[in-house]
């Protein structure tokens, strides 16, 4: 295995830990650089041995060593998922090309985590996704050409903005978050206009499937119940884009 590929897999769990941190702090409006990792329950700063990705969670039994409070399992899931996405990036674009692919997939992961936990899609992450998608169009084989990426961004954001405004006027309430509209700019640039309808369709079907599964488990289906559609949209975009890279 080339050194650069091995390095990507080695840093992936740490990146997953950082993405979990982003998903926890960005929606709260907290800084992600200045303050070290700490326990939300007791406020104690975590020692270096307590923030080793995956290993620290397992050795501590998923609890803070200071107060015994449960550590959110999302952090562990994020570390494992980031590692899996790094492997996907290597499969889609072996060698140096795997790094920008991983960067896009990790950004989609961060957006999904924020949406699943807070039902929010931070502007900074949406802007990062759009920038990476446009950069990929310039030199990453399999990505849409720059003109197609720009068209996809405009069509994606424009279509969702129209849906948002139309639903508000028709039903008198918000049916689509502004964060989803902004995310569609990055998704549209990533998959291009030709694959944009399929991406939205897959995301919609996934969202319906999750809602039905929740109702089977006892959750009540209501028209006003918010759904983390951004998470489904990110998963669909990752699937379509990686498939185009390997085609």
Brief account:
One of its GO terms (cellular component) is plasma membrane. With 247 residues, the chain is an all-alpha fold. Helices cover 68% and strands 0% of the residues.
Output the keywords.
8 helices, 68% helix, globular, 247 residues, methyltransferase activity, 2 domains, mainly alpha
Describe the structure.
With 247 residues, this protein is an all-alpha fold. The chain folds into two domains: 1-96, no CATH class; 121-247, no CATH class. The protein contains eight helices and no strands. Helix 5 packs antiparallel against helix 6 and helix 5 packs across helix 7 (178-216). The longest helix has 39 residues, at 178-216. The model has no long low-confidence stretch (mean pLDDT 91).
- The secondary structure category is mainly alpha
| Pattern of helices and strands | HHHHHHHH
| CA-based shape | globular
Largest β sheet strand count, sense and barrel closure? none
Total of DSSP H or I helical runs spanning 4+ residues? 8
What is the helical fraction, as a range of percent? 55-70%
| β-strand number | 0
SSE topology sketch:
Blueprint: H1 3-25, H2 55-59, H3 73-92, H4 98-118, H5 123-139, H6 146-171, H7 178-216, H8 229-246
Helix pairs in contact: 1-3, 1-4, 3-4, 3-8, 4-5, 4-8, 5-6, 5-7, 6-7, 7-8
């Amino acid at each position: 295995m080339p050194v650069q590929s091995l390095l990507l897999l080695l840093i992936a769990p740490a990146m997953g830990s950082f993405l979990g941190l982003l998903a926890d702090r960005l929606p709260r409006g907290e800084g992600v650089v200045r303050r070290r990792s700490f326990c939300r329950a007791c406020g104690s700063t975590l020692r270096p041995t307590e923030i080793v990705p995956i290993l620290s969670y397992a050795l501590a039994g998923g609890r803070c060593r200071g107060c015994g409070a449960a550590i959110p399992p999302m952090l562990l899931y994020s570390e494992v998922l980031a590692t899996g996405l790094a492997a996907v990036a290597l499969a889609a674009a072996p060698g140096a090309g795997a790094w920008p692919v991983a960067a896009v997939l990790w950004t989609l992961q961060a957006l999904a985590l924020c949406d699943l936990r807070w039902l929010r899609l931070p502007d900074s992450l949406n802007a990062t996704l759009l920038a990476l998608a446009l950069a990929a169009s310039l030199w990453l084989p399999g990505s849409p050409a720059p003109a197609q990426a720009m068209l996809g961004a405009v069509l994606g954001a424009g279509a969702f903005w129209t849906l948002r405004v139309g639903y508000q006027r028709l039903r008198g309430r918000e049916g689509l978050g502004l964060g989803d509209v902004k995310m569609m700019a990055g998704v549209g640039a990533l998959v291009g206009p030709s694959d944009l309808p399929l991406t939205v369709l897959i995301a919609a079907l996934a969202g319906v499937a999750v809602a039905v599964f929740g109702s089977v488990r006892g959750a009540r289906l209501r028209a006003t119940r918010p759904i983390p559609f951004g998470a489904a949209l990110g998963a669909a975009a990752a699937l379509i884009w990686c498939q185009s890279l390997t085609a």
